[in-house]
Recover the amino acids of this structure.
């Protein structure tokens, strides 16, 4: 009877243990389920965050990309893909010189690390648009816990540069035009004074001595006046010709 | 003895069950631990993704923000915070008119939904920089599974506009200058022809009839020549005066 009692006690113990173990199992299962819900929420959040990041960089007309300290692309936006007529898969992991970027020399890199932003003007040869002038801004950022990744934003400045150049050349042309007028007035004014002086002196001579002169001498002065006038008419014709060439 | 055998069988069953339950418990615990590691990794990833997003939008000099369909800010970058001299906390949840943005009217909004991008030129009054001219690009995006959120990117175009205006006014001035020269040459050329014609005709008359004329009549024509010359000298002086005023 004693053995039987022992057995019964063991059974009760085992039953209690089994219940406890079952409870612990259910508890653990519950913990897992709760964590699984949190995990799914977090996964959804991460997906949204990635989507938002892509939306933000892909809506930009600027070339935006991140490369590691070995100059290999780890992120590129749609603008890069479209302008270089390629795909994200083809670019990721490649060195950035495949897009024609200058390798930064050591001095600019150390400057970049110190100042954390470096702005350069570079020409890029785009397969879709030819050679364009870019303002490239490089920022040192942290990416997946690695420091010294570089975020590059390239803004196409070609049209701005063209406008600036047009403005400069227009200013220069204007200055040239002003100088031309000034020269022209100066020369005209001096070139006209000579024949006018001639006419005046001949007229004065005719006035004073004409009546005592031989016909020949008077004729000489009248011809002088006439040729001076013709010279001035010729200059005026040249003036009109000049006007057509401004 | 039969009862005792039954008890022994039950004990073996219970022990087996307890072992199984323990195994299931351990399995569940293992699943939980594995999920917990994945959860932590994901959490880290989300943190990095958020950090990357902030780094990308915060390095931009452009104003970048997202507002919901009620025009309330749900994300703003550092440029907004700095230019408006405020903080992210103060702006989030506020309506975007606090920054002086135009409320979009219904027609532009429906256009925005159809075309998914709307570009406008707007003036913004910045507390730090006064009134500046912005090109504002609005994109309809999905944000936290809500559709019809708006991503706005505002690029300060003031300096470009100024350059364009300078170029325009410089072009206009140049055209004015050309017209001025043209007018000036035309007028000069015609104004000079009249006295020259007078001189020529008086000289011709003197040449043909001078010897038969009275002294008085000859003097009249010589004076006519002289006053024509004086008139031209005066015009030349005015020309030099004009030059100083170009």
């Amino acid at each position: 009877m004693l053995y039987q009692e022992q057995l019964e006690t063991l059974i009760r113990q085992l039953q209690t243990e089994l219940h406890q173990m079952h409870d612990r199992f259910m508890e653990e299962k519950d913990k897992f389920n709760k964590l699984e819900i949190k995990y799914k929420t977090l996964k959804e959040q991460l997906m949204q965050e990635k989507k938002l990041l892509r939306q933000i960089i892909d809506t930009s007309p600027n070339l935006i990309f991140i490369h590691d300290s070995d100059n290999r692309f780890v992120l590129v936006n749609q603008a890069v893909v479209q302008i270089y007529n390629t795909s994200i898969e083809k670019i990721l992991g490649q060195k950035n010189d495949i897009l024609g970027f200058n390798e930064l020399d050591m001095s600019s890199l150390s400057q970049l690390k110190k100042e954390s932003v470096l702005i350069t003007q570079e020409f890029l040869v785009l397969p879709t648009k030819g050679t364009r002038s870019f303002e490239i801004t490089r920022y040192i950022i942290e990416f997946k816990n690695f420091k010294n990744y570089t975020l590059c934003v390239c803004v196409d400045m070609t049209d701005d540069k063209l406008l600036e150049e047009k403005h400069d050349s227009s200013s220069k042309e204007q200055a040239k035009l002003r100088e031309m007028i000034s020269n022209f007035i100066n020369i005209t004014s001096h070139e006209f004074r000579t024949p006018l002086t001639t006419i005046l002196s001949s007229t004065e001579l005719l006035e004073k001595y004409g009546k005592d002169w031989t016909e020949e001498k008077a004729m000489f002065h009248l011809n002088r006046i006439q040729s001076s006038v013709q010279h001035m008419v010729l200059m005026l014709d040249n003036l009109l010709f000049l006007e057509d060439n401004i």
